[in-house]
Backbone:
């Protein structure tokens, strides 16, 4: 199988993942040694907790490395006799994981990048992020919901943080975030009420993060980036091929990637459009990206997808369109 691998963003590691990453793993061994050397809880220690605690597992200084560790653990498990990864992308912090997955960073340098950016968030949440849907219950674009988002973006200090399939991630200052929660039309979808604020998330991918980007460019100036071994698709839908300039990758990674809109939908659409994979694979803990990926595919009618029902039918095939490594029956297809 030809696979397009998509790495999840920070905060994806939830209570369902507790206890998952306790087995033998050279990747986890190295990451645990890295964290122990910094005097911080190791991944296995955090994964072995009795319960998932928001202020511990979701805090930026832990959430980022937990998500990366889970992703790297699953990449380690991929069976090259069953599949070939032909392109790599990610959502938000998942871009850092994608750099590792594509071979642009080795494990230790990827861990250093992720740890550095995660530690900037320790007791330093800047503004906030708010989720709001732009599709109907069948995952088709909804003009009325999109208009509500467009109106919100006219508000001072509100920015489009991530275009996440059928969800707009809006972000801004604390005051602007509070205003979004009050002004966006209330909406119920399943068990979730919108608008909803993401806990302990800063206003990522907005100008509020420019000081962090500047600091990172100075502190990580020696980051050992190289051209990727596998084509790497960024949060604009642009492709870094193996001959790409490391300086160009660095400039985007610690520039616009930090303080401008991350267009995950464009990442997905570029990946399927340019590389025609047999399936998209979501390494752990990326199962929650499934709906966003499907909505991005529906938007362009990939393989005739028109709505949620079409996607559900496509998932019944021997090789589903989206393979989640969190789901045992799908994991077995690639490990």
Residues:
């Amino acid at each position: 199988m030809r696979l397009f691998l998509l790495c999840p963003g920070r905060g994806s590691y939830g209570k369902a993942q507790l206890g998952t990453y306790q087995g033998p793993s050279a990747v986890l061994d190295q990451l645990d040694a890295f964290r122990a050397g910094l005097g911080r809880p190791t991944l296995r220690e955090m994964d072995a907790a009795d319960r998932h605690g928001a202020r511990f597992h979701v805090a930026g200084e832990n959430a980022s490395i937990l998500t990366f560790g889970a992703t790297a653990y699953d990449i380690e498990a991929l069976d090259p006799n069953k599949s070939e990864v032909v392109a790599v992308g990610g959502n938000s912090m998942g871009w850092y994981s994608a750099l590792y997955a594509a071979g642009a960073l080795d494990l230790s340098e990827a861990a250093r990048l992720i740890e550095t950016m995660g530690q900037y968030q320790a007791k330093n949440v800047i503004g906030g992020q708010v989720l709001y849907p732009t599709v109907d219950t069948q995952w088709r674009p909804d003009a009325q919901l999109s208009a509500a988002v467009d109106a919100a973006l006219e508000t001072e200090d509100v920015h489009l943080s991530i275009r996440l399939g059928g969800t707009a991630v809006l972000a801004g200052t604390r005051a602007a975030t509070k205003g979004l929660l009050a002004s966006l039309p209330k909406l119920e979808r399943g068990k979730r009420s919108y608008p909803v604020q993401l806990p302990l998330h800063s206003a990522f991918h907005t100008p509020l993060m420019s000081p962090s980007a500047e600091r990172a460019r100075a502190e990580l100036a020696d980051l050992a980036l190289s051209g990727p071994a596998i084509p790497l698709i960024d949060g604009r839908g642009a492709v870094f091929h193996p001959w790409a300039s490391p300086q160009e990758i660095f400039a985007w990674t610690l520039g616009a990637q930090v303080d401008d809109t991350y267009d995950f939908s464009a990442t997905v659409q570029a990946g399927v459009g340019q590389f025609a994979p047999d399936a998209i694979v979501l390494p752990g803990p990326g199962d929650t990206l499934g709906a966003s990926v499907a909505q991005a595919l529906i938007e362009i009618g990939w393989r005739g997808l028109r709505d949620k029902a079409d996607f559900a039918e496509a998932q019944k095939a021997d090789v589903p369109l989206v393979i989640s490594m969190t789901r045992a029956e799908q994991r077995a297809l690639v490990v």
